[in-house]
Amino acid sequence: MLKTNFKKRKTYHMNILYDIQLIWCTISLLLIGLIMVTSSSMSIAQHMYNDLFFFTKKELLYLILALLLAKISLQTSTLFWKRNSGKIILTSIMLLLLVLTISNPINGSLRWIKVGFIHIQPAELSKLAMFCYLSNYLSRKHLKITNSLWEFYKPIGIVFIISILLLLEPDLGTVAIYYITILSLLFITGVKIWKFIPVILISIIITFVLIIMTPYRIERIFSFWNPWNDPFGTGYQLTQSLMALGRGKIFGVGLGHSIQKLEYLPEAHTDFIFSIIGEELGCFGVCIILFIIFFISFRALKIGKNAFKNNEIFSGYFATSIGIWFISQTLINIGTTIGLVPAKGLTLPLISYGGSSSIIMCIAISILIRIDFETKMKNKFYLN
Asked: What is the residue extent of each domain of the chain?
């Protein structure tokens, strides 16, 4: 009897300390992602490597590594991230410089550092590093930033410098995530709207210049406006994506029965996996997955709000930045697949094939759980 009561007390104790719903939602997305990566990659894996489960095996290895690193970060105090934010961002910058010098181009981009059979993408690490650094900066300067132009533009300047390295890869998608997140965080601090106008105007001008200077970006814009003008050329990927989503209808054609994944739709297991989900699982399956993703995102915002209430400023900004990051990356990825925004090369969080993305996002989720844990401990919501 005493042993049974102890087990019940321990289970309740764990439910109080850790956000069980957040954990299960994350595990659910990882499992769904593994299943969909397997389904969408079998054709190309057989063609390229003569192994139906080549990408599945690699994704499973990445997930094991992601969960191990997530466990370590879960046991790491948020004070560690705050104290070492400068070192983390410097490491990220060094990796971004390294990838420009030693990596081999893949699809015309210098984004990956090969270590054995594993490819590391520094841009993914740079997201977490940047948001950690910005959270530390804002936690120290949040009272001054509303009154001082220098304190306002200083973090934007740092983001601008790192954005140059990312644009040299090129990786415009990560830069977009940067600016969406930093402007949102600065808005949360109470900065007046007029201060954002120069930043937004300069960003629009720079983006316009980058587009007209690069022929392939101009082609993407025209194909994005009307992909059916050239369905077998510049508009091919988007038209195939739209066809996949159209075939899915309400309940989909069934898991494993996609036609577009048979090497009709490029990047079906990475950037455009959402299209295959729509084709095989239909609108019903898509809505369930999006509900889970946005549940995690808004949970992150709630965790950040609770941290602010408890005067944990760094934790509040860090959790909020992770929530905004997940929301914006999901919206851009989906916007790409349905033709609302030009292709950006961003993964669907916790679902698309990609080791670096899965690892960094699992670490980010574990940081959220840790922040929530520390907030509850501070409020004495735990059992003695």
From this structure: 24-378
